[in-house]
Amino acid sequence: MNTFEAAKRAAAQVALLPDAERVAALEAVADAICAQSAELLAANAEDLARMDPQNPLYDRLKLTPERLEGIASDMRHVAQLPSPLGRTLEDRTLPNGLRLRKVSVPFGVIGVVYEARPNVTFDVFSLCFKSGNACVLKGGKDADASNRAALALIRGVLAQRGLPECAVTLLPPTHEAVGELLGAVGYVDLVIPRGGRRLIDFVRDNAKVPCLETGAGVVNTYFDAAGDLEIGRRIVCNAKTRRVSVCNALDCLIVHKDRLADLPALVEPLAEKKVVIYADEAAYAALQGCYPLLETATPESFGTEYMDYKMAVRTVASIDEALAHIARYGSGHSESIVTADAAAATRFQAEVDAACVYVNAPTSFTDGAQFGLGAEIGISTQKLGARGPMGLCEITTYKWLIDGNGQTRP
């Protein structure tokens, strides 16, 4: 039996488990994460030793006791969420007496391709298992030791409980494995890429199985003419520096020209974090001599997902120009406006075409756990199907159940 066939058989078994049994298994895995933290951290140390600590991805790769506790907590949260399965989405009876019910069911086997983020291994397993799916994972080579340790832990718990170990499978961290996953027609029901633009484009362009595209995060925040300076300072600093390597991190601050005098104060907290600012001509003039890490913006400065302590600043004369900038350079992920003008806020949320649109809050909140989903399997920027953080409900599909009493079609 090949890897994908085994996963498909496991998916059929997981789908039929009572929810209470899935809950108990996830709770047991969460307990094991805490109990075996030393082993997980040791494996993670092997991966960290191969990466330059100055690499912005180092933070995404790194596990700590606190992060493992957070992963376990998220798994327990997922376990206790209502089951997404068996929900009646529609129930009606036709004039001929046929009863139609639209009911949520698992996808089956979900493949996920991701980079140096070992927490994804646990997050994807918890969401897939809770929603009755099996998962086939293809992690990056940078996190291979961490991912293999996580897989051994999860499968160990499943084996102890008499559950199918192939409910979670980890493929080798090779390009060949990606090709096999993307070509597993008849076995893999959905593939989801999680990573940078190059990875996402490759999966979308080469997948022979259905692909749900998660998007790179080119994220903007517009500081409006009516923006509150203190609120703006907090939002910009949090959105940019909380974790620079994640997809919801701020890439470009758009500032209204009437607030250029406030720009030095607005970005002042970033200097302590050593954020390099690439400013357009007007912003550069406002910041010159006031901000230590200042560079002149080039056309490439806008529309770039930095994933680093770097950020662009663009000056606009109106909200119309801000909206036009976002339409041109944004990736449909997360956008924010800082304003005390209710009309501007309403217009921004109505006209910005993105999965998550914020008013007076940082884009750092675009996260499955923060949205109360327990965890996320990815953040979708597409419009067909799921959009934004994808939790349990977003990785189920549905089928129609039709009850009759001998009716025939004329």
General description of the model:
The chain has helices at 3-15, 19-35, 37-49, 57-61, 65-80, 119-130, 144-160, 175-182, 197-206, 229-241, 263-272, 281-287, 319-329, 342-351, and strands at 88-93, 99-106, 109-114, 134-138, 168-170, 190-194, 220-223, 252-256, 276-279, 294-296, 310-316, 334-338, 356-359, 379-380, 388-389, 396-403. It is an alpha/beta fold and 410 residues long. The strands form four sheets. The chain has a seven-stranded parallel β-sheet, with helices on both faces. Helix 3 runs antiparallel to helix 7 (144-160) and helix 10 runs parallel beside helix 11 (263-272).
Task: Based on the model shown, name its key terms.
410 residues, alpha/beta, seven-stranded parallel β-sheet, four-stranded parallel β-sheet, 16 strands, 19% strand, globular
Write the layout of secondary structure elements.
Layout (H helix, E strand, L loop, with lengths): L2 H13 L3 H17 L1 H13 L7 H5 L3 H16 L7 E6 L5 E8 L2 E6 L4 H12 L3 E5 L5 H17 L7 E3 L4 H8 L7 E5 L2 H10 L13 E4 L5 H13 L10 E5 L6 H10 L3 E4 L1 H7 L6 E3 L13 E7 L2 H11 L4 E5 L3 H10 L4 E4 L19 E2 L7 E2 L6 E8 L7
Parallel strand pairs: 3-4, 3-6, 4-5, 7-8, 7-12, 8-11, 9-10, 9-11, 12-13
Antiparallel strand pairs: 1-2, 2-16, 14-15
